[in-house]
Amino acid sequence: MICALLLAASLLALEKNGIEFKVEGGPETIDHARSVFLAVTAAYPRDVKVVLPDFRDRVRGFSLAEDFAEPASTTKDGRTIETVNWKLVPEPYAEEYKIAPFLVKASPRLLSSRADDGSLSFVAGPIKFASPVPREPVTGGMEADPKKDLPPLSLKLVGFIVSALAAAGLAVFALLFGLRYVARRVKEHRMSPIERAWAELDRLLKKGLPGRGRYKDFYVELTMVVRRYVQRKYGIRAPHMTTEEFLRECGSTEGRAGDTAALSKFLESADMVKFAGVEATPEMADDATDSARRYLKGDSGEVAK
Questions:
Q1: What average pLDDT does the structure give for the chain?
Q2: What's the CATH fold of domain 2-129?
Q3: For residues 24 and 27, what is the distance between their CA atoms, to the nearest angstrom?
Q4: Which of 55, 63, 85, 235 has the most CB atoms less than 10 A away?
Q5: Over the Cα atoms of the chain, what is R_g?
Q6: Per-residue pLDDT averaged across 59-86, rounded?
């Protein structure tokens, strides 16, 4: 910006009431690729106070106006010199580029030493900039007629194609998996309580949790199979109750949840593994599975699967 101001032209210079005011900067002809830099300077006597104008609401054809002030200085004869630098960013193809007339505010420091109204302010401007020279219209045909050739085969292109195909395959797989899951859920929702219990038990056993040492997870899911069955068949919100609350609810109405004695034994033995820290074994897991089957079979009157 300093280099630009060294080459700047004088855009406005006037002297009034002992106040010297000038605006320097450039370029005078707008170039959309360059900002306009201005230096606004006022020199005034010691008994006068001047406030330099704010161009933000006075510019036309510029999208940005920002300023920064330089420290004020004093000459040997006591005159004060103030300078504010402005940066203006031209808008493309604006109708005009200018700074509208603006007010330079000035007043005496002692009202008795100047005019009766106490004001030395004056209006300056406008400052106009020349619009860019229009470009000559383009005539004739295209200088080049490029052909649309396929890109050469490369490792990068092959990698991109393979990645795209892999992503598409994963998306199709995820879609099919989601559709299969939804279809299974809809099918299970239409089953009777005992059919759904057999399906959930079969799905649990296929996970092979005891074989991986995840006995606690196995017992939690196994008891939930039985609890959900009781909830669907008898309307007892079994999954949300403790074992004690669940058994009490089952026994509150005679015959409401089938063989409550067998159910109580199954749930209490499962709680020993889930909450009491009892180390389970494969044999215990098999016995728990058999107990769940016996309860479901005895309650429903169907043959266990």
A1: 81
A2: Immunoglobulin-like (2.60.40)
A3: 10
A4: 55
A5: 45
A6: 89
